[in-house]
TrEMBL record:
Keywords: Hydrolase. Gene3D superfamilies: Alpha-glucuronidase, C-terminal domain, Chitobiase/beta-hexosaminidase domain 2-like, Glycosidases. The lineage of its organism: Bacteria, Pseudomonadati, Bacteroidota, Bacteroidia, Bacteroidales. Residues 412-638 form the Glycosyl hydrolase family 67 C-terminal domain. This is Alpha-glucuronidase. Residues 113-388 form the Glycosyl hydrolase family 67 catalytic domain. SUPFAM superfamilies: (Trans)glycosidases, beta-N-acetylhexosaminidase-like domain. InterPro entries: A-glucoronidase_C_sf (IPR037054), GH (IPR017853), Glyco_hydro_67_C (IPR011099), Glyco_hydro_67_cat (IPR011100), Hex-like_dom2 (IPR029018).
Length: 670
């Protein structure tokens, strides 16, 4: 990093402080003071980043960066580090440069949070080796399920021009310990492997390398045909295997530390080994063999749902579990956190724990495809912590997060959506951190350390995801979204010719008796895919956690729940609770005005207005629709509907590929 970069950064910071805060600086808002004396005996691009960060930002006296070969540091592995205060100096120690880089960002984070840095004694080591982002960015600049503008990657400008944002992106990732990025959509264009695109990928890899970020690519399994002109992509065909080996050799010639491939195969129309009667393991292993000599890996997704069973929630397990132990050691099977598809709440996928002889990665979705896009404030760390209540981090090799960044000035659309990118990285480093402490540290760095701001907003963030669940899909309801865009409600949705499991009625199963999908032993028996002790709990109507009730059971409208209320009444109260919660968030935010710059205050306030509006829309749509089955009135305390079902059934949102809807597009009362 050169002097020009830093003076540019200084100028930019000053300008931003004077004029406005547009969210572009994320959680990295410290102003360069250029007063630290930093000692580092080794020179390298990565250590230059660390040294310059400290020299510009650190205000706590002398710092030493030391590469250490002792036992302590060896045990902390290739990314771990220590931070110690010794004889008045702050000493960062690690076995590798990457460890020192992470130590640097840790120290600067403490300073930004206003922590006491005078007597430090810290040891850190990441829980997972693989901590990657998945971009669902298409080569034409659109982003599948992206709500913050167009892709960051300006393919048409690369390789001639390299946007300054690439480095800022790498810096942000490194600051939270993310060490890899998959640049393109899993619905992959074969073009990404063309010579032309590989040159562009190389440019990005060069920018990311000093920040410890490896580049990976999503590949289309039919690339040997579409790009290479072969007549097949059969993984057992020698010519096909040779084509991949050649391609991999070409990639490593350009990018020696290339991470590997991510593959979506035989899923939602993507090609794969099953097209040739081969298994997922045979497909993955062929690619793994090509990557192995270079240390590359294959992340093979288990997001499949071919109708092998009438219950979609069972299908991935049925297809992948029998393959346990059949994958090469450089294949990671990448499993979404839940068995269906990133719903506001799902139980964990039973594949975790069921493939002990296969390295597994969990895939989380940071972008809010099913949680109000970038319009709704939904802090997702609480959801990811819920996953870890059931799945031991030590059973996983890595974590992937479908990221929410685009080319919007503030990166993520909603200023609070940045917290999800941040929290994803922090939890990928240490899943034992609490959602609450991550919220606090993010708020302190992103807005202000003033407790009068941090405390109430931590509370808002901690309650936010549950509020979304309540006004969208409480009590275990799932996938009752509008067709295609997954923004608003459409529990009544019918599309002639569509797959049954793409329609809400398949999931909610509402009828005059009750509501919910019966996955008990007498229903689809999905419960049996879980370990016995848990299967018994999920199977029992009495013991099943209520947050999963309608996921596992078809429950009578009159069934008494733990509150003593009937299912119908409880459902009404939950929807009302969601609406009330968002209104409470609005009130808290109003009180925060003195602590927030005008620009971000206004932007968040506007999005909260949309969210409050949407919560009512969800409540009315779902309760009015389910009422046609329950035939019951709203209980006392639940607001009467603002919209009629007839009105809501007419709503069709013109949703674009990269921005969330504006308030003008949403259903409104005249
Ligand atoms: C990238 C869901 C999304 C798709 C996505 C798919 C996947 O179905 O709606 O947009 O495609 O998951 O994870 O592959």
């Amino acid at each position: 990093m050169n002097k020009r970069f830093w003076s540019g950064l200084c100028f930019l910071s000053l300008a931003l402080t004077l004029w406005a805060e547009d969210g572009s600086r994320l959680w990295l808002r410290q102003t360069p003071v250029n007063q630290a004396s930093v000692c580092c005996l080794v020179t390298s691009p990565m250590l230059t980043v660390a040294r310059e960060e400290l020299a510009a930002l650190w205000q706590g006296g002398e710092v030493d960066l030391q590469l250490c070969a002792d036992e302590t540091h060896r045990r902390l592995g290739k990314e771990g580090y220590t931070i110690r205060t010794s004889e008045g100096k702050t000493v960062l120690g690690a076995a590798t440069e990457q460890g020192l880089l992470y130590a640097t960002y840790h120290l600067l984070r403490l300073q930004a949070e206003g922590a006491d840095c005078s007597q430090l004694n810290i040891q850190e080591k990441p829980a997972f080796d693989i901590r990657v982002l998945n971009h669902w960015d298409n080569l034409d600049g659109t982003i599948e399920r992206g709500y913050a503008g167009r892709s960051l990657w300006k393919w048409e400008e690369l390789t001639d021009s390299v946007s300054a944002r690439y480095r800022e992106y790498a810096r942000a990732n490194a600051s939270v310990g993310i060490n890899g990025t998959v640049l393109n959509n899993v619905n992959a264009s074969p073009e990404i492997l063309s010579e032309d695109y590989l040159q562009k990928v190389r440019k990005l890899a060069d920018v990311f390398r000093p920040y410890g970020i490896k580049v990976y690519l999503s590949v289309n399994f039919a690339s040997p045909m579409k790009l290479g002109g072969l007549s097949t992509a059969d993984p057992l065909d020698e010519e096909v295997a040779r084509w991949w080996k050649e391609k991999v050799r070409e990639i490593y010639g350009l990018i020696p530390d290339f991470g590997g491939f991510l593959v979506k195969a035989n899923s939602e129309g993507q090609p794969g080994p099953c097209d040739y009667g081969r298994t997922h393991a045979e497909g993955a292993n062929m690619l793994a063999e090509a990557l192995k000599p270079y240390g590359g890996i294959v992340m093979w997704r288990a997001f499949v749902y071919s109708p092998s069973d009438a219950d979609r929630a069972k299908q991935a397990y049925l297809e992948f579990q029998p393959l346990d132990g059949r994958f090469r050691d450089n294949v990671m099977v990448q499993v979404k956190n839940g068995p269906i598809d990133f719903q506001p709440r799902e139980p964990y996928s039973p594949l975790f724990g069921a493939m002990p002889h296969t390295p597994l990665m969990v895939e989380f979705q940071i972008t809010q495809e099913y949680l109000g896009h970038s319009n709704h404030l939904a802090y997702l760390a609480t959801m990811w912590k819920e996953f870890y209540r059931y799945v031991q981090p030590s059973s996983l090799k890595g974590v992937a997060g479908v990221v929410n960044v685009g080319d919007n000035v503030n990166w993520c659309g909603h200023d609070f959506a940045q917290a999800n990118w941040y929290a994803y990285g922090r939890l990928a480093w240490n899943p034992d951190l609490s959602a609450e402490e991550i919220a606090r540290e993010w708020l302190a760095q992103t807005f202000t350390t003033d407790r009068r701001f941090v405390e109430p907003m931590t509370q808002v963030m901690m309650e936010s995801r549950e509020a979304v669940v309540d006004y969208m899909m409480p009590l275990g309801l799932h996938h009752i979204f509008a067709w295609g865009h997954h923004y608003g409600p459409e529990p009544w949705c019918k599309v002639p010719g569509a797959r049954a499991d793409w329609l809400p009625s398949y999931y909610h199963q509402a009828d005059k008796e009750g509501l919910g999908f019966d996955r008990s032993r007498t229903g689809s028996d999905a419960v049996s895919q879980y370990p016995d002790s848990l299967a018994r709990v999920f199977d029992s109507l009495e013991q099943c956690p209520e947050e999963y009730l309608l996921w596992f059971h078809h429950v009578k409208w009159s069934q008494k729940l733990r509150s003593g209320r009937s299912l119908w009444d409880e459902l009404c109260y939950k929807y009302q609770q969601g609406v009330d919660d968002v209104r409470a968030f609005q009130r808290v935010w109003k009180e925060m005005q003195p602590y927030v710059d005008a620009e971000r205050y206004q932007a968040v306030a506007e999005r909260l207005d949309i969210q409050a509006h949407d919560a009512v829309w969800w409540k009315d749509a779902c309760l009015e629709y389910f009422r046609t089955f329950s035939k019951q009135p709203y209980p006392k305390g639940v607001e009467p509907p603002v919209f009629t079902l007839k009105e809501l059934k007419k709503v069709k949102l013109p949703i674009s590929n990269y921005e969330p809807p504006t308030i003008e597009m949403l259903p409104r009362k005249k």
